[in-house]
Amino acid sequence: IKMAGDSRFPDVDTDGSEKNEETEIVVNVGGVRQVFYGDKLNQYPETRLAELINCLSGGYDSIFSLCDDYDPGKREFYFDRDPDAFKCIIDVYYFGEIHMKKGICPICFKNEMEFWKVDLKFLDDCCKTHLSEKKEELEEIARRVQLILDDLGVDASESRWKKCQKYIWKFLEKPESSYPARVIAVLSFLFILISSVVMCVGTIPDLQVVDAEGNRMEHPTLDSIETACIGWFTMEYVLRLISSPNKLHFALSFMNIVDVLAILPFYVSLTLTHLGAKLMELSNVQQAVQALRIMRIARIFKLARHSSGLQTLTYALKRSFKELGLLLMYLAVGIFVFSALGYTMEQSHPETLFKSIPQSFWWAIITMTTVGYGDIYPKTTLGKLNAAISFLCGVIAIALPIHPIINNFVRYYNKQRVLETAAKHELELMELNSAEGKAASFKSELEDLEREGKDGPFCNSRLKVSHSDTFIHLLSEDKHYRTRLQSCK
């Protein structure tokens, strides 16, 4: 591009003043031409298009600081930008707000708005929500990549205890980090299953034994297996607590609270068995022990730690509180209405089973949920008609909110899959860039050595060091967003 004095720019004087003060400008963005008028653009003087009106009087430096090229014969400004995003952005000059078209990457669109110097406040609220969701996804990807990099990296300044603590934490919390860690995760999963099976099998009367007082108790073999499982759970929890980088957050985590609830009843019942008899009656001790044994069912929730499907289901239900609330509201209204109608219609029958409206709630619940135990049922014609209407309404009330809940589960599950894939893709790009950088650096080193006349063995030793050195660049914020934008496009 030639500057002042070039014959290609006949409409501009050497002092940079514009001969024709026409307020109409032509903009060519990615091959799409648009004509704008000054009265529209001057509504937002801080935008790039508004600055084009006054840039001609500032000379070529001012012109080319705002655009990629300029044709003075056509008075046309050229920009190598996204034309689809530009068509959405220029709506601000006509409508005062911007809507993002479907299919455009929100982060790319945000960068386009920053290039055209249009404030994000003009973006519609629905599009801002989409943009914030995409930002959260990028932050989650960056967090996952950083966690992987932290696992790969070794800080030489760390003490031996810190290194050991970090290794134990990765060994117990991240099964994908190594093959032994994967084996430990499988063993923990098997211990949970064995403990749950033992808890169920121990209630079979034929497998129980009678103590000296004539009370039934679990078989000693099952009791030994239970003790071994509790020992494994205790050791696992203590090691994870010791190696945790943030012990307060670890103790307050929901899954770790479940672990405590699964372990604590064993030790409390053991304490009551040996010491409680001295403080209270033996019957009270046995009742307390039985109540604590029931709490062992909490250990089944430990499976969620090793199952991504259960974790996804939990998060999907947490995001579906509104739909679940609607479901409960529909059922509550139907239960109240149909139980009251059923009680009223069944009063004329001498052998009615509907003694009161609160007692009819149970009939309405099992009818609307299509369970129908048959312990309470209507005997009059009107009561049967009311029952038919109630279970039809129950089917409809349950079916309506189920579809949004399933959609939330599928959306969250697919999102987690996409985030995992994106994090792996990000690491592959980083490793590729690292390999290219090392190859270029090594090539320049070889050229320097050849120019300096170094011997062959020294070059081979340098080659081995460079080839064996494993180095991954840390993911800076700028590089991260640039890489993700390339993926989005």
UniProtKB/TrEMBL annotation:
Cellular compartments per GO CC: voltage-gated potassium channel complex
**What CDD domains does the entry give?**
BTB_POZ_Kv5_KCNF1
Q: Where in the cell is it found?
A: Cell membrane
Coiled-coil regions listed = 415-452
Query: Which superkingdom?
Result: Eukaryota
Q: Where is the composition biased (Basic and acidic residues)?
A: 8-22
Annotated region (Disordered), positions in chain: 1-22
Main subcellular location of this protein, as a coarse class: membrane
In its UniProt record, which GO terms are filed under biological process? action potential; protein homooligomerization
Question: Which residue intervals define the domain Ion transport in the entry?
Answer: 182-416
Question: Can you give the residue ranges of the Potassium channel tetramerisation-type BTB domain?
Answer: 25-126
Could you list this entry's UniProt keywords, alphabetically sorted. Answer: Cell membrane, Coiled coil, Ion channel, Ion transport, Membrane, Potassium, Potassium channel, Potassium transport, Transmembrane, Transmembrane helix, Transport, Voltage-gated channel
- Molecular function per GO: voltage-gated potassium channel activity
TM annotation in the entry = 183-204, 248-270, 324-341, 385-406
Q: How does it sit in the membrane?
A: Multi-pass membrane protein
Task: Tell me the SUPFAM superfamilies matching this sequence.
Answer: POZ domain, Voltage-gated potassium channels
- Record's keyword annotation contains Lipid biosynthesis: no
- Its quaternary structure? Heterotetramer with KCNB1 or KCNB2.
In which family does this protein belong, per the annotation?
Answer: Belongs to the potassium channel family. F (TC 1.A.1.2) subfamily. Kv5.1/KCNF1 sub-subfamily.
| Primary role | Regulatory alpha-subunit of the voltage-gated potassium (Kv) channel which, when coassembled with KCNB1 or KCNB2, can modulate their expression and their gating kinetics by acting on deactivation upon repolarization and inactivation during maintained depolarization. Accelerates inactivation but has relatively little effect on deactivation. Coexpression with KCNB1 or KCNB2 markedly slows inactivation.
Q: What is this protein called?
A: Voltage-gated potassium channel regulatory subunit KCNF1
Instruction: Say which species the protein is native to.
Output: Ciccaba nigrolineata
Write the lineage as a comma-separated list: Eukaryota, Metazoa, Chordata, Craniata, Vertebrata
**Gene it is expressed from:** Kcnf1
